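pasting for ref. prot 1 ->
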Amino acid sequence: MFDNIFGKFGKDVNVKQDDLFNIASEASQMDLKNEQQVRALIGSVAAMVGRKVDPAIEDQLTKMIINGEVPTDMNELLKMMM
């Protein structure tokens, strides 16, 4: 499954698989109801892919994550991103 994700996104954002696994590991231990931690996670992901997140988008993502509105199923998440 992860090879499929990297096939779709890896070339566009130049992300190393190990870096993604490291952030995923960190995120799995975070309190995703804590706004400060969620914003730090969003900042880490943005830095990893070399992109700046618009403050309005960061606010929207933060709200979605805190409220549990982000799909946990990888296929559903990919559909949202495509």
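and prot 2 ->
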Amino acid sequence: MSTTNKYKGIRRRKWGKWVSEIRVPGTQERLWLGSYSTPEAAAIAHDVAFYCLRETSSPEKLNFPSMLPASARTGLSPRSVQNAASDAGMAMDAQLSSKNKLFISEYCEPPGEWSGQSREGEALSISVEDYL
């Protein structure tokens, strides 16, 4: 696995997890945004926190400007920003994990082992906004 990343505000631990943290503007305080399985999840957590803390209108400062949840807003306490960012990152990890399971099911497992659908027969669908 490569140790380089293409996203802002994240880094990879030696054991493979991706983590994100951010400084609170005007202080030396850092907010821990979480540890994630994918770099995309850590990056979306950073984007949410960055936007909530700095309200940037510059899309180039975000990793995924088009994926910023509509519920992301400024004026939150650092703890609320931390929670919103963590929830967004976990939602992204869950979404990517379910897509990976569908890929594995379709291309790597024998037919009939895993259907890629929930017990009720509905396809899995998770949105970052479901967690904010």
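The first strand starts at residue 10 and ends at 12.
The beta strands are 10-12, 18-23, 30-36.
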